[in-house]
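Weekly modeling sync, notes
Attendees: S.R. (lead), two postdocs, one rotation student

Agenda item 3: backlog of single-chain predictions. S.R. asked that every request posted to the team notebook include the full sequence so nobody has to chase files. The rotation student volunteered to paste the first one in as an example of the format we agreed on. Action items at the bottom.

Example entry:
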Amino acid sequence: MKPLIIAGREFTSRLFLGTGKFSSNAELSAAIQASGTELVTVALRRVEIGKEGQDEDILAAVPAGVKVMLNTSGARTAEDAVRIGKIARAAGYDWIKLEIHPDPNYLLPDPVETYKAAVELVAMGFTVLPYINADPVLAKRLEEAGVAAVMPLGSPIGSNRGIETEAMLRIIIEQSNLPVVVDAGLGLPSHAGHAIELGASAVLVNSAVAAAGDPAAMAGAFAAAVKASEAALTARPAAVLDRACATSPMDSFNAVV
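Predicted structure, as returned to the notebook:
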């Protein structure tokens, strides 16, 4: 597979991790380390700039060398998201996961407000990774607007239902000149592996790890699945056929008989 490069930064791990829902900073830190991730997302409202102490500041749980990407979770409009971006910049962060989902029941991203905010944030010099529905047209429009990657959902946030948008994800991956990060709804390591095998550049998981009985062990399992699928693609899988193909040809068997 090609190296994963986003906004000029190369990542060796194709697994990104969200930081919500963990019961403690210690649990979060253990999961980050077990996952091998090099990028985590943090909701700005959970960041306590200037506080000290492992149990007070979520950023204290992020190991050195792991990139922090603040997200705009909670934003309901483009205006909200841009305001959050400005606060993030003042705190020294210029990578933004753009999330705008006004519907509290399904948390589906608003395509109109997301596009508007992306255009403005890109113009302001942010590295923008928008969370979107699996919409190939919107993905291309955002690419044209200058985002660094697109993050289409596999299924609704926190649902753990896996990939329910495969047909549209295939089109997005086929058409994109940017990294495609499958985000939301991945509940099992096999779901993450499937996304990589579809051709996604990376995956982002949160609830499946944070809500597991053993978050660090689950993070490790996701990491293993992503690496296994990446290795399988590098090994060039055998062709998928529409009919059976004998592993031991019958003509060789008949020749022996």
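Discussion: group reviewed the output briefly. Confidence is low (pLDDT under 50) at residues 50-55.
Action items: rotation student to repeat for the remaining queue; S.R. to check formatting next week.
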